[in-house]
Each structure stands twice: as structure tokens, then as C-alpha cells.
Fold:
Amino acid sequence: MPDNGRVNDVRHVLVLPDRDAAEEVADELPDRFGVTEEPQLVRDALAGEDDAEDAQWLVVVEDPDARLDRAALDELATEHEGWLEAP
Structure:
């Protein structure tokens, strides 16, 4: 098995109701959690929906050292009307 240089391959996915909320969460991550790698923002259209109004946004946070507190991440997402996806 090839070694990718990471201790763990932990990824957290925060689900937010819209792009503005996702961008706010992404902006808060460095100050609140010391995240240095820029999180990835991903539009997640609901099944069968083409309308941008029916899209959720995901904030994907890489956590190679598994040091981020899942409960605190969920609290941050909740503050923006979202949630932390279960692993």
C-alpha cells in the first residue's frame, strides 16, 4: 500500500444551507480552530433539483492529524443553520 505521508486521512464535512453561510464558516475556521489548509467549498445540489436555490453547500476540512474537535465543528455549523456530517 503506498504511503501518502499522512498519519490519518480524516476529513470533516460541514453541511450549510447556502454559499454565504459556507463562506462564513470557511472564514472562521482559521481563527477558531487554527486550520491552515484552506477548506474546500462544494455546491451539493439536492437530488433531482437544478435550481441553485435548492442547493446545500459543503465545507470540506482536511484534518490529517485528527486534532479538530468534532463537537466544536458541529457547533460552528449549527450556528450557521447547518450540521457536521457523520463520518
